[in-house]
Amino acid sequence: MAVNENAELEELIRNATSGGVSTPITESEPTEEGDGLDFDTLLLVARRSLLWLVLLIGLGLTGSWLFLRYTKPVYRSSSILKIDERTEAGALGLGTLGLSSDNQQSINSLSGEIELIKSNIIYRRLRDSLDLNVNYYVEGTVLESELYGISPFRVEYQGSILYNIKFNLKFINSRRFQISFILNGQEQKIENNINTLFDINGMKLLVQPTRLFGRNVIDNNYHFIINDEAAINGYLDQNLLVEIINPSANTIRISFQEFNPVKARAIINKIDTVYLQEKLVQKRAASAQTLRFLDQQLNENRRNLQGAEENLQNFVRRTKTYDVRSNVAEVKGKVETLEEARISLVEKLQLLSDLEGMVERESLTPREDITIKESIPGLSTLGDAQLTQQLGELNALLFDLRRVERSNRETTEAVQSRLDKIEYIKSNIRRTLLQRQRQLRNDLTKLIRKSESLDAELQRLPERATEEDRLKRPLTQYINTYTMLMAKKADFNIAIAGTTPDFQILSPASMPTAPISPVRLMVYAIGLASGIVLGLGLIAVRYLMHNTVTNVRELERATTASVLGVIPTYDKEKMAISKLVVDKNPKSAISESIRSIRTNLDFISSSKKKRMISVTSTVSGEGKTFVSVNLGGIIALSEQRVVILDLDMRKPKVNLAFGADNVKGVSTILIDKHTVLECVQHTSIPTLDFISAGPTPPNPSELILSPRFDEMLAELHQVYDVILIDTPPVGLVTDGILIMRKADIPIYIVRANYSKKSFLKNINKLIRANNFTRLCTILNDARATGLYGYGYGYGYGYGQGYYEDIKPVESPLTRLRKRFS
């Protein structure tokens, strides 16, 4: 919500500043003062949170003690096993077939052994050999204890067994007992004699004493639980841990954790025993199953291989080729050859066309010492002797014509006869060129058809190649698989012949003496750390949530505007609306603080006799009207004529402060409905007057921008020394900024413990955007202990008895509570 509020506020101020004559800010904003970590505020929050920090640390340590008090200690018993696969195949010169000494292979092999140990096969043997079906407990003062192997009684059961139900047992005397349990949400109680079979909802139950049964069992409360297979398996799964210690040495550790150390050790010892037995059984069964699987895969692969061979043979018969890719290269070579021939034919056609143009233009070489082949180098590529001869004759005739024309006119017989010969030879050349062009075009057409045929064949070859690869792929796979299966079967038979299991207990299960959890020192450390972290987190949260201005030091750090003064909290009465109080309590701390502000204003504007002061704030509720009214009253008490204008026409409050009506005022003056003199209202202070806002107009901003507003100010300056304007909040509307531009001293109100810190950054932006170099700030409603950020206040403890405010006597408990508040 704070981020959204700040964003909206910045947008409103940006819109407001852009609506006036000031130039919009186009460059990046400079870094605001006060950014970063505020060590003063952090220290204040830490001091106020010190008691909470101590309480949270105590809470953490208390939680650790309670955890240790009501948590059962867990014990762990472990054994270390060495598992080897000893093979005699190496002695036969066959190597360790099927067995790899690679570290990863060892890990994979040991992982399989771990899964065997944690399988239901081992769990079933444990249930059969250990007494895990019934758990016996004795209830202590706080915790219960399991009586594994030391229970003073045993239960036998048959029929419709009630599994996983807690049966509470209390011995009435040495021969009689009472059993209670909850079934279907109802508690049931049964009394019976020891060694006497009785019925519980279809379950036959018999309670028998053991050798540990004595007179002291009467004083204790017992209960037992009959576990089903799923409960036992879940219990073993949850508490059994099998891990690899050294893959190279094939060693594993089997651990079991339990609340009862005797039971943990017994389970580990029994696992070591039943594992060897099951390993031998599983080895024989696995070998037989593996051989059956290999035979099955060989038969199936043999059938698949035959099918793949037949498919490839059919493909060869249909395409009449054994290697499609070699055909691709051959066809590509033919296509390239045809393309070269086509290019040559095109060039020849172009040459014939050029020759035809040269003949028509008679642009052959007219020199006799240069042959036609030397003149036209491409003519030799045609290989046409007739055409070459005709062109040579034409060239000679043209040369002869040029020679005769030098000494004869064009109409002479010598010239005309030569022209006729030239025309005759040109007609012969045309016929020859036409025949040659027709022949070349026919050859080009045939070549293109053949090339298209080869292209079509080349386009079909990838499809054939893909089909060939598709047929060869399963064939190769089946061949490799068949060969691999045959080799694996041979290797497996050899490995079975020379492999025997080797199992060795390197470290038997020991009786655990100390619990593995909870660790007392660690639990207390966690409790202490948790308390400290929660305390620091509380300090951080309170610091981050501390987003309001609390003292004048924060105001000075975060803004570039001057601070006129600080107005303390007014504790005389709770005011629903702002009031004039300086005339009623002239010697109070609040009156003195406002007098100090008046003095500072005199220093700022000492050269001016007539002053206009505007008072604004960011949002409503920061004490803008209260400061305006009382500052005007203090200035008026110094024998200066003061008028207060209420320009907050949307939400007028000045008339409420003086208990007057709001029938007419600034809005009616600006629309020329009333004169200034008609709207001036007097107060209890002779030199203090005010003009209320008047009825709310639909266009307050336009009225303020009108020339009538400046005329009204000019009229007031003729009568009053100080014009004090209560403007609307600049964070909500633009009217306040428009008025601040006209004021001699704009004042910005910041309310302690109410105004957000982000408002201070907006003050700096307002100064930069509108060049408000004389903008001043006032901290309002500051508490006595935080007026200046120190441990004393302006109105208390300084000059005892100087003010009328009297600090009440506080009890030590009240002072301590305030110290940490």
Automatic annotation (TrEMBL):
Q: Where is the Tyrosine-protein kinase G-rich domain?
A: 470-543
**EC number(s) stated in the UniProt entry for this protein:** 2.7.10.2
Q: Does the keyword Nucleotide-binding apply?
A: yes
Catalyzes what? L-tyrosyl-[protein] + ATP = O-phospho-L-tyrosyl-[protein] + ADP + H(+)
Chain ranges passing through the membrane: 50-68, 521-545
The UniProt record lists the keyword Cell cycle: no
Molecular-function GO term, any one = non-membrane spanning protein tyrosine kinase activity
* Ranges where the AAA domain occurs: 611-769
Annotated Pfam families: AAA_31 (PF13614), GNVR (PF13807)
Keywords in alphabetical order: ATP-binding, Coiled coil, Kinase, Membrane, Nucleotide-binding, Transferase, Transmembrane, Transmembrane helix, Tyrosine-protein kinase
List each coiled-coil range.
291-318, 430-457
User: Which CDD domains does the annotation name?
Assistant: BY-kinase
Q: Which family does it belong to?
A: Belongs to the CpsD/CapB family.
NCBIfam families per record: eps_fam
- What name goes with this protein? non-specific protein-tyrosine kinase
> Which organism is this entry from?
Hymenobacter volaticus
